[in-house]
Specification:
The chain is of the alpha/beta class and about 350 residues long. The chain is about 40% helix and about 15% strand. Helix 2 links the parallel strand 1 (about 35-40) and strand 2. It is globular and about 60 Å long. This is PotD/PotF family extracellular solute-binding protein.
Length: about 350
């Protein structure tokens, strides 16, 4: 019995020592304690040089992880297995995170650079008072097209996509809200419409678009459009900027009926264990010089008014990506439709995709 006791004591002591060594190693490498910040962001959505600069200036080690959809991000944070300190969800995801109590209120007194954000992009419906979120990037949904291949069509209206001259020549981003929103907007309805006859009318019109649709695709849409594998694409403005950088023949427009105005935002999830460091990082990203550098790297539109003044005129003055007030009035932010209605939207979108076969 004494021998057995000695074995248990030895095993326990060895385990205790190993735990201590592991904790020391993690601490020495910056993976525990107050000098660590875990960021959860979209892929390639920040200038890596800025992460290095933040670490050098603050002594806080950054652990950077990525997600490829709001739904994946919501699931990971909802499970609570990883202590994310800062995340960058889109506006409709923030509404859902608020409902599920997944966010920590921000302390605005620790964000003096918040004054740099354009007031037009503050206090929006998905987070009134910016209690939980700060704008990171924004943009629109619109049409990328190749004037050399579209026979004079100007795409001022969504209805131009139904032109029979575009047969088998349109690529659509694989997004339920984007495609359904296009259908609804083309009929003069809100892209947040939940009226069933309106939704069915949008589906019927989208099915009439089928002959013109070459494919519904994911990230490869950027390469395919840049390589002129199709003449037209329904895309997000940031992707449009990247595509046009690869092929200068292409142009981008938001049709006159209106479209989506989207925001990605910085938040502190409930999983955060380094809230002070999270505030420091958010405030760092709101610095005009930092925000301007990040904007040039990412290519999306910045909500930082002070940063915009530092950008080259060919960026800040490009009305395709910084539309005037008149167009902004015709843009809508996605509302959180709720689980049942979102599932219905997904079903309608699936019916449309099945009509392409």
């Amino acid at each position: 019995m004494k021998s057995l006791v000695r074995v248990f004591v030895s095993v326990f002591a060895a385990a205790f020592i190993l735990m201590g060594v592991a904790a020391w190693l993690n601490s020495s490498q910056g993976y525990s304690g107050g000098n660590t910040l875990t960021i959860y962001n979209w892929g390639d959505y920040i200038d890596p040089e800025l992460l290095d600069r933040f670490q050098e200036e603050t002594g806080i080690t950054v652990i950077y992880q990525t997600f490829d959809s709001n739904e994946a991000m919501l699931t990971k944070i909802g499970q609570g297995g990883t202590s994310f300190d800062v995340a960058m969800p889109s506006e409709y995801a923030i509404s859902k995170m608020k409902e599920e109590n997944l966010l920590i209120p921000l302390d605005h007194s620790k964000l003096p650079n918040l004054n740099n954000i354009d007031s037009r992009f503050m206090n929006l419906s998905f987070d009134e008072g910016n209690t939980y979120s700060i704008p990171y990037f924004w943009g629109t949904v619109g049409i990328v097209y190749n004037p050399e291949l579209t026979q004079g069509i100007d795409f001022n209206s969504w209805d131009d996509l139904w032109d029979p001259r575009l047969r088998n020549n349109i690529l659509l981003a694989d997004g339920t809200r984007e495609v359904m929103g296009m259908g609804l907007n083309s009929l003069g309805y809100s892209l947040n419409d939940t009226n069933e006859p309106h939704l069915q009318a949008a589906l019927s019109k989208l099915k009439q678009l089928s002959p013109n649709v070459k494919a519904v695709v994911g990230d490869e849409i950027k390469m395919m459009l840049a390589n002129e594998e199709a003449a037209v694409g329904l895309v997000w403005s940031g992707d449009a900027s990247e595509i046009m950088g690869d092929n200068e023949k292409l142009d981008y427009i938001v049709p006159e009926e209106g479209s989506n105005l989207w925001f990605d935002n910085m938040v502190i999830p409930k999983t955060a264990t380094h809230v002070e460091a999270a505030h420091k990082f958010i405030n760092f990203m709101l610095d005009p010089e930092v925000a301007a550098q990040n904007t040039e790297y990412v290519g999306y539109s910045t909500p930082n008014k002070a940063a915009l003044a530092l950008l080259p005129e060919d960026i800040s003055g490009d009305t395709r990506f910084y539309p005037d007030a008149e167009l902004l009035k015709r843009l809508e932010v996605y509302n959180n439709l709720g689980k049942r209605m979102l599932a219905h939207y997904n079903e309608l979108f699936l019916q449309f995709k099945m009509s392409l076969d």
